[in-house]
């Protein structure tokens, strides 16, 4: 490999992926690569290294950013009134607040179900104001969503529910065959793939919903009241599962009403009231904002 080629690789890596991801050592190691195909391989390795470092918490990145967001529904209800918050890569955050304070509205904005009336929303590096239509499926693949009412398809088995979710974002058969058993295993439902949702308990159905949210290996999991229909023991089990998923490197945002449950976990708690963040810190009452 020529010196020019080596220099170009170092420049490309340095510019594109930042100092943390491409060290001079990487540039040195790259000398074993030859030609255009190898340049691609080198860049892929840089990306992989960047992902590993990010997941190990060595590179901090903002995954969710809402800036001065206002949401007025068509009937004139002001659900959000200048809400700002950020969530960093690898964080586990509870969002709490009274009924009607705007929690689900935040979630709907983050998954692109509705648009803000004013302000900016950024999710996993995608600015939702400027997003191009072709980027939307890519953005959706980076976010796993868990709903309170599970949203499973009744007449499909657990396995087919998951196939459906993967096909919806364009996954191929090989990926589907590999990923579904892995995710069912993660939530402890490896033997329930052939069951219909109606043949499962509430807690099991919620675990299917979590497995489904994990299918596309999302950077961020967003859950709106994931334990709303469960008894306290099952709720704790589900939160512990989300905590384990977070420990594997996925950023987690959980909306919940359950004060006791939140207080059992030493996590960041963002509290909303009337469409604004009123406190942000550890524990239910967090740190009061001025
Ligand atoms: N589609 C809609 N059209 C009009 N108003 C809406 C709509 N969805 C929500 N709202 C209103 O916006 C405000 C915030 O609602 P949101 O669902 O975000 O609250 P929430 O914090 O999730 O409440 P809960 O804890 O009860 O789920 C409420 O006043 C609600 O009535
Ligand atoms: Mg809600």
What does this structure look like?
- The longest helix is centred in the N-terminal third of the chain and has 21 residues, at 35-55.
- By secondary structure, the protein is α/β, with parallel strands linked by helices.
- Helix 1 runs parallel beside helix 3 (35-55), helix 7 (173-186) packs across helix 8 and helix 8 packs parallel to helix 9.
- Strand 7, helix 9 (232-247) and strand 8 (251-255) form a beta-alpha-beta unit.
- Strands 6-7-8-3-9-10 form a six-stranded mixed beta sheet, with helices on both faces. A four-stranded antiparallel beta sheet has the order 2-1-4-5, covered by helices on one side.
- The protein has ten helices and ten strands.
- The protein has a single domain (3-14, 22-60, 90-112, 132-271, 278-282), classed as 3-Layer(aba) Sandwich (Rossmann fold).
- The protein binds adenosine-5'-triphosphate and magnesium ion.
């Amino acid at each position: 490999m020529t010196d020019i080629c080596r220099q170009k690789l170092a420049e490309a890596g340095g510019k594109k992926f930042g100092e943390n991801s491409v060290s001079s050592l990487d540039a040195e190691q790259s000398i074993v690569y030859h030609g255009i195909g190898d340049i691609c391989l080198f860049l892929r390795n840089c990306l992989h290294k960047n992902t590993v470092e990010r997941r190990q918490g060595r590179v901090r990145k903002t995954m969710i950013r809402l800036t001065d967001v206002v949401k007025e529904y068509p009937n004139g209800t002001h659900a959000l009134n200048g809400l700002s918050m950020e969530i960093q890569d690898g964080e586990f955050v509870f969002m709490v607040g009274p009924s009607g304070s705007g929690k689900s509205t935040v979630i709907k904005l983050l998954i692109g179900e509705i648009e803000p009336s004013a302000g900016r929303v950024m999710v996993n590096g995608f600015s939702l104001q400027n997003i191009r239509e072709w980027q939307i499926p890519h953005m959706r693949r980076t976010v796993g969503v868990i709903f309170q009412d599970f949203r499973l398809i009744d007449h499909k088995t657990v396995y087919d529910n998951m196939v459906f979710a993967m096909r919806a974002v364009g996954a191929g058969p090989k990926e589907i065959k590999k990923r579904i058993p892995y995710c069912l295993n993660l939530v402890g439902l490896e033997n329930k793939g052939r069951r219909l949702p109606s043949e499962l308990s509430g807690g099991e159905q919620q675990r299917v919903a979590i497995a489904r949210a994990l299918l596309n290996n999302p950077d961020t999991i967003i859950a709106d009241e994931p334990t709303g229909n469960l008894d306290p023991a099952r709720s704790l089990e589900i939160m512990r599962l989300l905590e384990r998923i977070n420990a594997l490197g996925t950023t987690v945002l959980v909306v919940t009403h359950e004060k006791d449950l939140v207080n059992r976990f030493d996590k960041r708690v963002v509290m909303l009231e009337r469409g604004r963040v009123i406190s942000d810190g550890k524990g239910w009452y967090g740190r009061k904002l001025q």
